Amino acid sequence: MSKAVDLRRKKNLKEKVNLYHFYYKKKGVYSFLIKNSIKIILGLGILVGLLYYIKSLIPNFDNSIDVFIEQFETLPVLLIFVASETFFGLVPPDIFIVWAQKFDLPYLMVFFLGCLSYLGGVFSYFIGNGIGKLPKVDKWLKKKFVEHFDKIRKWGGVLIIFAALFPLPFSPICMVAGMVRFPLPAFFTLALFRFARFFGYALVLFHVF
To answer: How far is CA 1 from CA 6, 105, 129, in A?
Structure first.
């Protein structure tokens, strides 16, 4: 009896996987992911190559960067980071990842930045959830981020994962997720991919600077 139940579960799982695969293929998820992944990889490769070229031209480039980074106090930088990660992601988080190198335990700071970014996304979700109750603001944001609304309705969690991992506007997408009432437990789980984003970029950027 248990063996038959197990086989039935595996069959149902396979059918669900095939169904999702067909749905995502039809809605253009795979083409979107592939296209943007290629852009991101090429962009990151060009950036790293450019930085290495600049380092070859400028003597003591790393020391100059260190001196520049040391000028910024910790608390103001963290406040700017939290504000950026909560409201529209105005400042690229890569700048803060480079800044984390000033600390004795840079990867611990990267983890802390990841936590703040994750919480910023959660705050954005609840802001969006509350904005949904304000008709005029809700209408303005739906017009401003119409593409995000369209994609999150069609793709759901896939867009949240992609925004958490890659240079897409994470905060606005979290806000949109709150406005469309995306299931909160699923959002909490999917947003954890933000940590992979921070540590992945830290591994690259720490070797460049």
So the answer is: 9, 55, 46
| Chain-centre distance for alpha carbon 73 | 25
- Whether residue 103 contacts residue 109, with contact meaning beta carbons closer than 8 Å, is answered with yes
CB of 207 closer than 8 Å to CB of 100: no
Q: Are 99 and 77 in contact (CB under 8 A)?
A: yes
Residues with Cβ < 8 Å from 145, sequence gap 6 or more?
172, 175, 176
Interatomic CA distance for residues 131 and 136, integer angstroms:
9
Mean pLDDT, consecutive 10-residue stretches, the chain (209 aa), reads 57 63 68 75 75 72 63 85 84 87 90 95 90 74 72 79 84 86 91 94 81
AA letter at 94: D
C-alpha span between 202 and 196 (Å, rounded): 10
Q: Is the pTM of this model over 0.70?
A: yes
Residue among 25, 204, 34, 35 nearest 110 (CA): 204
The angle that helices 29-57 and 146-155 make with each other, rounded to 10 degrees, is 120
